[in-house]
């Protein structure tokens, strides 16, 4: 199912195996296997972002990890991912996306084994960071390979399934962590949550080498090492204080790091301008197309509202409504099931509705948020999971209609030789947005509650959050006007 090379892309080459024939109108078995392998790699990443959450008490008891080490089990994973996505994407463009994906899979699988064998918190945190490095190398190749391998309706279906996998992972992460830890397989307690990645990673390696077509850029220049260093430094100086600031009550060093990050970003952009004809890390020409720039901006806003909403919603459910952790988890399951249904609808649409589908999803989510806000304004102090089922499922349904089509349409016109760089930028946007959203909770939510468990304060703070989330949904809906209204003659 490889798409034919575009006439204006003489430097790009895709070398599909014989069983992946360009121009087929239907997806054969080999193409389905390639798609499932790519989505399997994505699923490993998404699950491992949250799989530790339900296993943290067992990890603390087993390893003696303190609060700082526990926090770094998530931060130590997400920070290398955010730092390395752009570089990982560009390396795939230059050296072969399948090759780089398989290298990243080796790193991730090895790190997962080390996590499962770790006996102390230091080794576990280090292995989690190595997992993040593997993800940063591996994951940009997924979107880039989908972009250059599938075309037409098959492409829209592939990106729709990509959105469905992301939605499914929201449920599977915490649930898998809880079930495997509770099962205590072979007396290993929490360790199987990491060890399960080993057979999955090996399957991705074996099947990926056989079925994923290689794609790269002909006559590739040397990688932009200076650009890689500057981009990594800019992201660290931005994401680290945003992730840690609220935990330390925003000391001066946080603002100093943010200012340094902004200066480093300016230096990076200046360097990229000088490198535009010599294989830059980020081809700035990507942002001249409103489809990519508008879609990436919408992805940033998407991450921002998710980072703001999901953290504060958890606190509202348990402190504002007095729900137990179990009932709060059920609420997340309801939302995730709605998200899965919306993503499935998007996959089945085959891209026929272009931007109208994700825009409709945003409007559904906004209306459901408003209904949920009316419930919160009622001041109900008892758990009311049945009463909130409809708005919660509809919130998930609307958001589920966004991810796959937004990704598909944003990357649709990206030249194939820049697919990896574009994928890295697009993935970085949502990670940066989540970091910004998490930081925004300090201003929007905790400034009202002050960390108090008082139900009334938490409900009032959550009402304020919903106004912000509603505004961000409207902004995301407006940015989607940069996406095409029709996809009739799209080539891929």
Specify the number of helices.
17
Biggest beta sheet attributes:
2 strands, antiparallel
End-to-end C-alpha gap = 11 Å
Question: Which spans of ≥5 residues are poorly predicted at pLDDT below 50?
Answer: 1-25
In short:
It contains 17 helices and two strands. With 492 residues, it is mostly helical. A two-stranded antiparallel ribbon has the order 1-2.
Structural write-up:
74% of the residues lie in helices and 2% in strands. It contains 17 helices and 2 strands. It has helices at residues 29-50, 56-63, 67-95, 97-117, 121-149, 152-183, 192-195, 197-211, 225-244, 252-274, 290-320, 325-349, 356-377, 385-400, 403-411, 419-449, 455-479; strands at 12-15, 214-217. Helix 3 (67-95) runs antiparallel to helix 16 (419-449) and helix 13 (356-377) packs antiparallel against helix 17. Strands 1-2 form a two-stranded antiparallel ribbon. With 492 residues, the protein is an all-alpha fold.
Write the layout of secondary structure elements.
Blueprint: E1 12-15, H1 29-50, H2 56-63, H3 67-95, H4 97-117, H5 121-149, H6 152-183, H7 192-195, H8 197-211, E2 214-217, H9 225-244, H10 252-274, H11 290-320, H12 325-349, H13 356-377, H14 385-400, H15 403-411, H16 419-449, H17 455-479
Antiparallel strand pairs: 1-2
Sum up the structure in keywords.
17 helices, two-stranded antiparallel sheet, 2 strands, single chain, mainly alpha, 2% strand, 492 residues
């Amino acid at each position: 199912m490889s798409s034919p090379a575009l006439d204006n892309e003489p430097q790009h080459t895709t070398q599909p195996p014989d069983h992946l024939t360009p121009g087929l109108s239907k997806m054969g078995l080999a193409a389905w296997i390639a798609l499932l392998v790519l989505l399997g790699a994505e699923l490993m990443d998404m699950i491992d972002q949250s799989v530790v959450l339900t296993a943290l008490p067992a990890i603390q008891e087993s390893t003696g990890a303190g609060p700082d080490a526990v926090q770094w089990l998530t931060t130590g994973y997400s920070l290398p991912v955010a730092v390395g996505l752009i570089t990982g994407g560009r390396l795939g463009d230059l050296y072969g996306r399948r090759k780089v994906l398989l290298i990243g899979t080796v790193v991730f699988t090895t790190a997962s084994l080390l996590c499962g064998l770790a006996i102390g918190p230091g080794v576990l945190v280090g292995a989690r960071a190595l997992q993040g490095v593997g993800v940063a190398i591996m994951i940009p190749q997924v979107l880039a390979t989908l972009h250059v391998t599938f075309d037409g309706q098959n492409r829209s279906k592939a990106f729709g399934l990509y959105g469905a996998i992301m939605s499914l992972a929201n449920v599977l992460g915490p649930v898998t962590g809880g079930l495997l830890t509770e099962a205590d397989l072979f007396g290993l307690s929490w360790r199987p949550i990491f060890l399960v990645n080993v057979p999955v990673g090996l399957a991705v390696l074996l099947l990926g080498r056989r079925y994923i077509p290689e794609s790269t850029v002909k006559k590739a220049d040397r990688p932009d090492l200076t650009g890689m260093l500057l981009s990594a430094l800019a992201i660290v100086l931005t994401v680290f204080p945003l992730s840690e600031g609220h935990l330390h009550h925003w000391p001066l060093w946080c603002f100093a790091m943010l200012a340094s990050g902004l200066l480093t970003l300016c230096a990076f952009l200046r360097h990229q301008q000088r490198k535009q004809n010599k294989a830059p890390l980020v081809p700035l020409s990507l942002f001249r197309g409103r489809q990519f720039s508008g879609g990436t901006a919408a992805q940033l806003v998407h991450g921002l509202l998710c980072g703001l909403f999901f953290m504060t919603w958890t606190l509202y459910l348990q402190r504002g409504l007095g729900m137990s952790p179990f009932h709060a988890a059920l609420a997340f399951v309801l939302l995730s099931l709605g998200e899965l249904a919306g993503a499935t609808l998007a996959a089945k649409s085959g891209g026929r509705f272009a931007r109208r589908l994700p825009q409709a999803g945003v409007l559904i989510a906004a209306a459901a948020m408003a209904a949920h806000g009316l419930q919160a304004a009622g001041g109900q102090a008892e758990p009311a999971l049945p009463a909130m089922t409809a708005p919660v499922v509809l919130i998930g349904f609307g958001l589920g209609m966004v991810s796959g089509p937004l990704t598909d349409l944003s990357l649709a016109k990206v030249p194939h030789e820049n697919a990896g760089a574009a994928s890295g930028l697009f993935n970085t946007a949502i990670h940066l947005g989540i970091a910004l959203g998490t930081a925004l909770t300090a201003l929007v939510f905790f400034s009202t509650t002050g960390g108090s468990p008082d139900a009334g304060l938490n409900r009032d703070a959550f009402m304020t959050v919903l106004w912000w989330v509603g505004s961000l949904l409207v902004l995301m809906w407006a940015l989607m006007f940069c996406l095409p209204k029709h996809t009739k003659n799209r080539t891929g």
